Amino acid sequence: MRETIAIALKDLRLLLRDKAGFFFVFFFPLLIAIFFGTVFVDEGGPTNRLKVFVIDEDGTSASRSFVERLMAAPELEARSASRQEASNRVRRGEATAYIVVLKGFAEGNSFAGNPPAVELGVDPSRKAEQAMLEGTLIKYASEKLSELFSDTDKSLSSLKLSREQVLKNSNIPAAERAELDRFLGDLSGVLARAPQRANETGEEGGAFQPLKIRNADVQTHWEGPRRSYDITFPQGVMWGVLGCAAAFGISLVVERTRGTLVRLRMAPIRRGQILAGKALACFITMVTLSIVLLGFGRLVFGVRPDSLLKLALALIAVGICFVGIMMLLSVLGRTEQAAAGIGWSAISVMAMVGGGMLPLFFMPKWLQAISHFSPVKWGILAIEGAIWRGFSYTELLLPCAVLVAIGIVSFAAGERAFKWFE
Hints:
This protein is α/β, with parallel strands linked by helices and 422 residues long.
């Protein structure tokens, strides 16, 4: 028993001496808890407004009034744009959706079964927000009328009571009472016939439909089948790349601590050649893994890239970026345990901030701004741009350039700080 306790105390002392390992055992989980608590904090209102573009094709006072209500809506961050610009920016992931107030909006008549219509184009990767957007549009289209006309029985009862009060009110001239009675009677007839009209047309939603929403999937603006796997496979590729970066970073630390690098240095090989060989092996592994994953997605799930050349450029940029990060991770820990803890913790943070774990639209604004510094965000965007976002070469240039720049800077910093002997 004493021997067991002695061994346990020895391991605890070693843990306390390894400051990096101690930090990631005891303090890093606390930081994770604080991170997610900050993301989902309730500030008494919506933590994140949905970014949308609004296009008014009707140009009437009624459509302008509706657009003004959307612009002022606390649930939305609405901006004006042309249809083409809005579609392109939603396709590039710069906004959740676009809303087009269609021509003839002012002529729409909900009571006649021809409600005003809008077109809603949603980013395919943000389908979870579509129902929220549709509810918001219905809310601002109906305003107070929705409560009155969504319940036909309640509306008819209210109109009946109003007619009785009008007929009993002697202060209203007889001629006016007759006109009001006739008007309320006609309105009651319209509401009474509305359910039958809805059944005949097969429309759902009761007697009163304040707004007709035509969904226009943004992905239909370019060729190729679009499935949910087109969205999930880029994330899977990124996790594979992250795993490669962590594994190769730790392997460098292992070889250094076990003396492998010392023996390599005694051979007629320059330092640069050793690191270049490691980098090349890591790059080949990352690209091969990505090709295998996407090939499996193509054969089994129909994941088809918009352009093989664009996809190749994206994968090369991702590989360069995370080879550099691998080099940087290898100098952050002196022991294998510390390197593993630091590597996976850094990767987890990059994934969380960059949208690899939690969709960016769930995050508060300040955290979305920080996501620009995560290579995971740019990696996913580049691969999505080549697979289903339909990026042009010019549009693909930005994420690829950011990835290559991060890779070069990280590799240079890691190579400069790398210690060949411990």
